[in-house]
Amino acid sequence: MYIKIELDDGYVVVSPVNFTSEVKIDIKYDEPQISIKASGNAKVMEVSGHIDLEDDNVIKEIQKKSNNEVKKYMKKAIKVATKNESDIFGFGLKLYKKYPDYFEKIKDEWNKNLKHLNIDIKSNLIIKSISSTQNSVEVLDDKE
Q1: What DSSP designation does 7 have?
Q2: What is the DSSP letter of 138?
Q3: CB 118 within 8 A of CB 26
Q4: For residue 98, what are the contacts with CB-CB under 8 A and spacing of at least 6?
Q5: Sign of CA dihedral 55, 61, 65, 70
Q6: Does position 141 have pLDDT exceeding 70, yes or no?
Q7: Contact indicator for 8, 47 with CB cutoff of 8 Å
Q8: Is the dihedral of CA 102, 108, 111, 115 positive or negative?
Q9: Based on the number of CB atoms within 10 Å of its own CB, is 80 exposed (0-12), middle (13-18) or buried (19 or more)?
Protein backbone atom coordinates (compact mmCIF):
# COMPACT_ATOMS: atom_id res chain seq x y z
CA MET A 1 0.00 0.00 0.00
CA TYR A 2 1.22 3.45 -0.86
CA ILE A 3 -0.19 6.73 0.39
CA LYS A 4 0.15 9.88 -1.69
CA ILE A 5 0.16 13.07 0.37
CA GLU A 6 -0.29 16.50 -1.19
CA LEU A 7 2.11 18.92 0.50
CA ASP A 8 2.96 22.52 -0.36
CA ASP A 9 3.82 22.61 -4.06
CA GLY A 10 4.30 18.87 -4.45
CA TYR A 11 3.58 15.49 -3.00
CA VAL A 12 5.12 12.73 -0.90
CA VAL A 13 4.55 9.01 -1.32
CA VAL A 14 4.63 7.04 1.93
CA SER A 15 4.68 3.27 2.34
CA PRO A 16 3.47 1.73 5.64
CA VAL A 17 5.77 -0.99 7.02
CA ASN A 18 4.91 -3.45 9.81
CA PHE A 19 1.38 -2.09 9.77
CA THR A 20 -1.00 -3.73 12.23
CA SER A 21 -4.46 -3.08 13.58
CA GLU A 22 -6.15 -3.95 16.83
CA VAL A 23 -9.93 -4.17 17.18
CA LYS A 24 -11.63 -3.83 20.55
CA ILE A 25 -15.34 -4.09 21.21
CA ASP A 26 -17.43 -3.03 24.19
CA ILE A 27 -21.07 -2.51 25.02
CA LYS A 28 -22.17 0.99 26.06
CA TYR A 29 -25.77 2.05 26.45
CA ASP A 30 -26.77 -1.41 25.17
CA GLU A 31 -24.99 -0.78 21.84
CA PRO A 32 -21.74 -2.27 20.51
CA GLN A 33 -18.86 0.22 20.42
CA ILE A 34 -15.95 -0.71 18.17
CA SER A 35 -12.49 0.79 18.47
CA ILE A 36 -9.85 0.19 15.81
CA LYS A 37 -6.27 1.24 16.38
CA ALA A 38 -3.93 1.00 13.41
CA SER A 39 -0.23 1.49 13.94
CA GLY A 40 3.09 0.94 12.31
CA ASN A 41 6.11 2.52 10.77
CA ALA A 42 6.29 4.22 7.40
CA LYS A 43 8.91 4.96 4.83
CA VAL A 44 9.01 8.01 2.56
CA MET A 45 9.41 6.54 -0.91
CA GLU A 46 9.13 9.48 -3.28
CA VAL A 47 9.03 13.27 -3.16
CA SER A 48 8.15 15.91 -5.71
CA GLY A 49 8.27 19.65 -5.32
CA HIS A 50 10.38 21.54 -2.81
CA ILE A 51 9.77 19.59 0.39
CA ASP A 52 12.42 19.67 3.11
CA LEU A 53 12.50 16.17 4.61
CA GLU A 54 15.10 17.26 7.13
CA ASP A 55 12.58 19.59 8.81
CA ASP A 56 10.89 17.90 11.79
CA ASN A 57 7.73 19.97 11.23
CA VAL A 58 7.49 18.69 7.65
CA ILE A 59 7.85 15.08 8.86
CA LYS A 60 5.13 15.70 11.48
CA GLU A 61 2.84 17.12 8.79
CA ILE A 62 3.49 14.10 6.54
CA GLN A 63 2.67 11.77 9.47
CA LYS A 64 -0.52 13.69 10.27
CA LYS A 65 -1.72 13.62 6.66
CA SER A 66 -0.72 9.96 6.28
CA ASN A 67 -2.73 9.02 9.37
CA ASN A 68 -5.74 10.94 8.05
CA GLU A 69 -5.48 9.02 4.77
CA VAL A 70 -5.24 5.67 6.59
CA LYS A 71 -8.38 6.52 8.57
CA LYS A 72 -10.14 7.60 5.37
CA TYR A 73 -9.25 4.31 3.61
CA MET A 74 -10.37 2.26 6.60
CA LYS A 75 -13.68 4.14 6.90
CA LYS A 76 -14.31 3.65 3.19
CA ALA A 77 -13.62 -0.10 3.38
CA ILE A 78 -15.89 -0.47 6.42
CA LYS A 79 -18.62 1.58 4.74
CA VAL A 80 -18.59 -0.62 1.62
CA ALA A 81 -18.69 -3.82 3.68
CA THR A 82 -21.43 -2.68 6.04
CA LYS A 83 -23.52 -1.22 3.22
CA ASN A 84 -23.46 -4.69 1.69
CA GLU A 85 -24.36 -6.22 5.07
CA SER A 86 -21.08 -8.10 5.15
CA ASP A 87 -19.10 -8.51 8.35
CA ILE A 88 -15.80 -9.26 6.59
CA PHE A 89 -13.84 -7.65 9.45
CA GLY A 90 -15.21 -10.09 12.03
CA PHE A 91 -16.81 -7.57 14.38
CA GLY A 92 -19.62 -10.02 15.15
CA LEU A 93 -17.17 -12.77 16.08
CA LYS A 94 -15.33 -10.44 18.45
CA LEU A 95 -18.66 -9.38 19.98
CA TYR A 96 -19.72 -13.02 20.34
CA LYS A 97 -16.45 -14.00 22.04
CA LYS A 98 -16.58 -11.14 24.54
CA TYR A 99 -20.35 -10.85 25.07
CA PRO A 100 -21.96 -14.17 23.98
CA ASP A 101 -25.29 -13.53 25.74
CA TYR A 102 -25.63 -10.09 24.17
CA PHE A 103 -24.75 -11.44 20.71
CA GLU A 104 -27.35 -14.21 21.01
CA LYS A 105 -30.04 -11.52 21.42
CA ILE A 106 -29.02 -9.56 18.30
CA LYS A 107 -27.47 -12.16 15.99
CA ASP A 108 -30.47 -12.42 13.64
CA GLU A 109 -30.27 -8.70 12.82
CA TRP A 110 -26.48 -8.31 13.06
CA ASN A 111 -25.64 -7.99 9.35
CA LYS A 112 -28.59 -5.67 8.69
CA ASN A 113 -27.52 -3.33 11.50
CA LEU A 114 -23.80 -3.22 10.68
CA LYS A 115 -24.13 0.19 9.01
CA HIS A 116 -25.33 1.67 12.32
CA LEU A 117 -22.31 0.57 14.36
CA ASN A 118 -20.36 3.17 16.27
CA ILE A 119 -16.78 2.69 15.06
CA ASP A 120 -13.87 4.80 16.27
CA ILE A 121 -10.70 4.63 14.17
CA LYS A 122 -7.29 5.84 15.28
CA SER A 123 -4.11 5.64 13.25
CA ASN A 124 -0.56 5.99 14.52
CA LEU A 125 1.76 5.76 11.53
CA ILE A 126 5.29 6.99 12.28
CA ILE A 127 7.85 7.95 9.64
CA LYS A 128 10.95 5.90 10.46
CA SER A 129 12.96 6.06 7.25
CA ILE A 130 13.35 8.10 4.13
CA SER A 131 14.36 6.49 0.84
CA SER A 132 14.41 9.68 -1.15
CA THR A 133 15.85 12.94 0.16
CA GLN A 134 15.68 14.65 -3.19
CA ASN A 135 12.85 15.35 -5.54
CA SER A 136 12.12 12.37 -7.74
CA VAL A 137 10.92 14.56 -10.57
CA GLU A 138 13.03 17.61 -11.30
CA VAL A 139 11.76 20.44 -13.42
CA LEU A 140 14.57 21.57 -15.65
CA ASP A 141 14.66 25.01 -17.21
CA ASP A 142 15.72 25.01 -20.83
CA LYS A 143 17.98 28.05 -20.88
CA GLU A 144 19.81 27.20 -24.09
Answers
A1: E
A2: P
A3: no
A4: 25, 26
A5: positive
A6: no
A7: no
A8: negative
A9: exposed
